[in-house]
Specification:
The chain is mainly alpha-helical. The chain has helices spanning 3-30, 35-53, 61-74, 84-96, 101-107, 111-124, 128-140, 144-157, 162-174, 178-191, 196-209, 212-223, 227-239. Helix 5 (101-107) runs antiparallel to helix 6 (111-124), helix 8 runs antiparallel to helix 9 and helix 11 (196-209) packs antiparallel against helix 12 (212-223). It is globular, with a radius of gyration of 21 Å. It starts with a helix and ends with a helix.
Length: 240
């Protein structure tokens, strides 16, 4: 293997790790599983393993990694989605490791046991992550008052984490307190100005409380990023 081959292999490994950590971060903090992206990460990992196992020349990665992305995109609307079985199993390790029992209960839909485990974790060693996970479990159980209290507990440890403020805003929406929701969304945006989901949520909430001027201001920001979402929100605003 020449120096160019080593460079290609090294870059491919860094890209793959970066992609997998990105997906892990997204799911951990936004709780939105992206199955096509998981499949892309799985296939990229398999590609690198094949270079060592077969073995193949690292130059094969120049087409194998792009093909991994293409297959992931095609899986959205084709039978290739059957590959999600393998990528989901692979990324379960990324999400919960081998010892995070609470996260395993949560991802399996066993929210009562997830609450129990996260509360035990907090009693031993309170942290932002433990409170955040507890809040997610309470939210899944529709126990929104407990959910809000848990998010507020998480903020004591990580007040500058925008995802906590965003999720807290959604919890306030669930109990019908839209003004507190707006305050939480504003805080999330102040910490991450390009937080698209927060802009979308606050725009919709402004429309729901009749603050049309503020809603249209947010709509302008959203339209610069995604016309389809902007059209959806515009219809909501006009219906008020």
């Amino acid at each position: 293997m020449g120096i160019i081959g080593y460079i290609i292999l090294g870059l491919s490994i860094l890209i793959t790790l970066g992609w997998c950590f990105y997906i892990r971060h997204k799911v951990k903090y936004e709780q939105a599983r992206e199955m096509p992206q998981e499949l892309q990460g799985f296939l990229m990992t398999v590609s690198i393993i094949l270079v060592f196992a077969v073995p193949l020349s690292p130059f094969h990665l120049l087409w194998m990694l792009p093909v991994s992305f293409i297959i992931g995109l095609l899986s959205i609307t084709t039978p290739l989605s059957i590959l999600f079985i393998f990528s989901s199993a692979y990324f379960s390790i990324w999400y919960i490791g081998v010892r995070n029992e609470g996260r395993k209960f949560y991802l399996d839909g066993n929210y009562e046991n997830a609450v129990r485990v996260f509360k035990e974790e907090i009693s031993k060693q309170p942290s932002s992550e433990a409170y955040f996970n507890l809040a997610l479990a309470y939210g899944a159980l529709k126990q929104h008052d407990n959910e809000i209290a848990a998010y507020q507990g998480a903020l004591k440890f990580a007040p500058k984490r925008p995802e906590i403020h965003f999720n807290l805003g959604n919890a306030f929406i669930d109990i019908g307190d839209r003004q507190k929701a707006i305050d939480a969304f504003k805080q999330a945006i102040s910490l991450r100005p390009d937080y698209f989901k927060a802009h979308y949520a606050i725009c919709k909430t402004y429309a729901e409380i009749g603050d049309i001027e503020s809603a249209y201001k947010e709509l302008e920001i959203i339209r610069r990023v995604d016309n389809r979402s902007a059209d959806e929100l515009n219809a909501i605003i006009e219906a008020v």
